[in-house]
Amino acid sequence: MEMEGSSKEKSSIPSNEKIIEEITDKLSGSAIDESARNEKIKDSNSKPKTQPSTSEDFIEGLDKSEDEDETTKNDDYIDEEVLKDSEVTYSDEDRQRLRSKAQHYKTVGNNQFKSGEYKESALSYTLALRTCPLAFHEDRAVLFANRAATKMKLILYKSGIEDCSKSIELKPDYLKAYHRRAQMYEQLQKLDEALADFQKILELDPSHKEAMIATKRLPPMIEERNEKLKTEMLDKLKDLGNLILRPFGLSTENFKLNQDPNTGGYSVNFQQQQQPQQPNPQQNQRPHPQ
């Protein structure tokens, strides 16, 4: 009877192979789910982007939250390939005429921005970008940066960052574009990217006060965030390690992490935990009187 009970207890404990098989199945399942999600994203990205047919459609798209910024991308999409193909036939007079028309849209957008009409202002800058010939790099850089300013007001940070990046491509020393992008990076908690932009601003203008303050303020925040992430990662690894080591009668407590103060790296040392000493029942017995 005792052997039969012992056999049942052993059968209830999963073997090491079974534990590893279960972990592998879970990892494989998550990989399949990730693959399916990537395929879905790929299919959605392969669909042709459309531009809004009316200004009302464009403004309605800007009412979407940042979680739906794919709609915003379609609403303010600039098809530069179409512009490039069209400009092949333009004369210098045509280019100047279109440049003046784009400047008109820009002026309208500036006035709307000053009046707090940010959605309408974004539309005007988009119309200017769809009109201004590609040859006028600086004009287009200003338009992208201006549209980024409206998106910052509308809390469309991801799309605003894209506009700033496009502006910087066209004008690599454009301080306003770096400044707006740095502010939006920080709002999205992308502190490393924000710090890099503020440092670039100081290269362009060493007296820029906000950049000077930011380059002192952000490094401790980045260090604190990294320490928090490191702690969370170690906790997750500890949980996984305990799951694997448990069948062997071990735990992560048997392994001690030692950090090298010079390199910051870690080394792992194994230490066998001492079993608590069992009390000797004979020592606790009182002598009987003779």
List keywords for this structure.
about 290 residues, mainly alpha, Serine Threonine Protein Phosphatase 5, Tetratricopeptide repeat, two-stranded antiparallel ribbon, 13 helices, elongated, disordered N terminus
Give the neighbour order of strands across the main sheet.
Answer: 1-2
* C-alpha Rg (nearest Å): 32 Å
CATH architecture of the domain at 53-171: Alpha Horseshoe
What is the beta-strand fraction?
Answer: under 5%
Please tell me about this protein's structure.
Among the domains are: 53-171, Serine Threonine Protein Phosphatase 5, Tetratricopeptide repeat; 189-233, no CATH class. Helix 6 packs parallel to helix 8. It is elongated. The chain has helices spanning 2-12, 16-46, 55-62, 69-75, 80-87, 92-114, 118-131, 137-153, 157-170, 175-187, 191-204, 209-245, 281-284, and strands at residues 255-259, 266-270. The protein has a two-stranded antiparallel ribbon with strand order 1-2. It is mainly alpha-helical and 290 residues long.
Secondary-structure map with pairings?
Blueprint: H1 2-12, H2 16-46, H3 55-62, H4 69-75, H5 80-87, H6 92-114, H7 118-131, H8 137-153, H9 157-170, H10 175-187, H11 191-204, H12 209-245, E1 255-259, E2 266-270, H13 281-284
Antiparallel strand pairs: 1-2
Helix pairs in contact: 6-7, 6-8, 7-8, 8-9, 8-10, 9-10, 10-11, 11-12
Short description:
By secondary structure, the protein is mainly alpha-helical. Among the domains are: 53-171, Serine Threonine Protein Phosphatase 5, Tetratricopeptide repeat (Alpha Horseshoe), CATH 1.25.40; 189-233, no CATH class.
